[in-house]
Design goal:
Blueprint: E1 2-7, H1 10-16, E2 22-27, H2 29-44, H3 50-55, H4 86-94, H5 100-114, H6 119-136, H7 139-155, H8 159-176, H9 179-195, H10 199-216, H11 219-236, H12 239-256, H13 259-275, H14 279-296, H15 302-318, H16 322-338, H17 345-350
Helix pairs in contact: 2-6, 4-5, 5-6, 5-7, 6-7, 7-8, 7-9, 8-9, 9-10, 9-11, 10-11, 11-12, 11-13, 12-13, 13-14, 13-15, 14-15, 15-16
Length: 361
């Protein structure tokens, strides 16, 4: 593991109201690629040679080695068939003769959907949206591209880069008076603070986002905010509030057929029942999350799937079903390795398996 010292910009420091800091970013192979993308995007709007930037191949940032869907879950567990999802629909739209604004919106929506499916694809679609937005003077498109990059880096726990892009997005959304965009930035910042275990701040930000989405009448965004709020309340120890918000999020996701967020809801409910030692209920919810992932196949929500597999492994271990435990852990490790879910890797090891897939002794 290598560490890259990087100074926080005065723009970012100003956004948070404190002095700039020096961060040391861990650069595993995948993070080097993402850092390359981030550096290219951060310089894009300031470049005097925009066309050269636009033509710069993504491979130079190392993304070509990460664009694969990876080994994922073994074929014996996951079906190869995939349902028609929002991602499928958006990808089909891209093949049509869209106007520049419509193409930018489609790229940004794809980037948002891919944040927890494939970080590499989220970065790719965000960069495409940003290049086209800058080229055509589409400020709103730029803002949403920055916000998607912020979300992707928050999920990857690259907090400096997440804050940098969130600051850029928030500034543009405020300039445009775009309340939905501001609410989305609160969601992203809430994720960042949750991943840094600053739960009170994460609850505050997700509560602000939920209020905006309710006022605007956006049920899909409300579902996301309710899930995130319930998720962080659970981690903060507010169990009953968490269950209430997660139940509301689950109902909304079912009514909207939002399978990706529904997977995360089932994972969170399973975790809740695991903590209560209601293991039969926990297994039901984790299995529901896995079933949706089987249905979505390549478009499955990778983080929720991985964590569900880890919990199922722990439950199998409690029942002394060692072969099942090892199978679940190997599948979790395959996903965590293929999709740069570094935060999930220690959990796999703690649960009883080494990164090589050999049981711990």
């Amino acid at each position: 593991m290598f560490f890259w010292p990087i100074a926080e910009s005065f723009t970012t420091a100003g956004f948070t109201g404190r002095k700039p800091r020096i961060y040391f970013l861990p650069l595993a192979f995948s993070n080097i690629a993402f850092a390359g993308i981030a550096f290219q995007v951060l310089l894009l709007t300031a470049s005097t040679d925009f066309q050269a930037q636009a033509r710069a191949p993504l491979e130079k940032a190392g993304m070509d080695s990460l664009s694969t869907d990876g080994p994922g879950i073994s074929p014996t567990t996951f079906s190869s068939s995939s349902s028609t999802t929002l991602v499928d629909s958006l990808q089909k739209q891209l093949t049509k003769g869209l106007s520049d604004p419509a193409r930018i919106e489609c790229l940004n929506r794809l980037a948002r959907e891919y944040v927890f499916i494939s970080a590499a694809k989220a970065a790719d679609y965000s960069q495409q949206a940003l290049v086209l937005s800058v080229h055509t003077g589409n400020t709103k498109g730029q803002a949403y591209a920055y916000r998607n990059l912020a979300s992707m880096y928050a999920a990857q726990e690259s907090f400096y880069l997440s804050l940098e892009f969130a600051g850029k997005a928030m500034g543009l959304f405020q300039q445009l008076g775009d309340q939905q965009g501001i609410g989305n930035c609160y969601i992203t910042l809430g994720l960042m603070y949750k991943n840094q275990e600053q739960y009170a701040k994460a609850v505050e930000l997700n509560t602000k986002a939920l209020a905006i989405f309710k006022r605007l009448g956006l049920p899909e965004r409300q579902a996301v905010a309710l899930h995130n709020l319930g998720d962080v309340e659970f981690l903060a120890g507010s169990s009953e509030q968490a269950k209430t918000h997660l139940s509301k999020a689950t109902d909304l996701c079912i009514s909207l057929s939002n399978h990706s967020v529904l997977t995360a809801c089932y994972r969170a409910m399973g975790r809740h029942y695991f903590q209560e030692k209601r293991f039969d209920k926990a297994v039901q919810y984790f299995n529901k999350a896995i079933e949706i992932s089987q249905l979505l196949s390549a478009n499955a929500q990778k983080e929720a799937t991985t964590e569900s597999l880890i919990y199922l492994a722990r439950l199998a271990g409690q029942d002394k079903r060692q072969q099942d435990q090892l199978a679940y852990l190997q599948q979790a490790l395959a996903l965590a390795s293929a999709f740069s879910l570094a935060a999930r890797m220690p959990a796999c090891v703690i649960a009883g398996v080494k990164p090589t897939g050999e049981p711990s002794r």
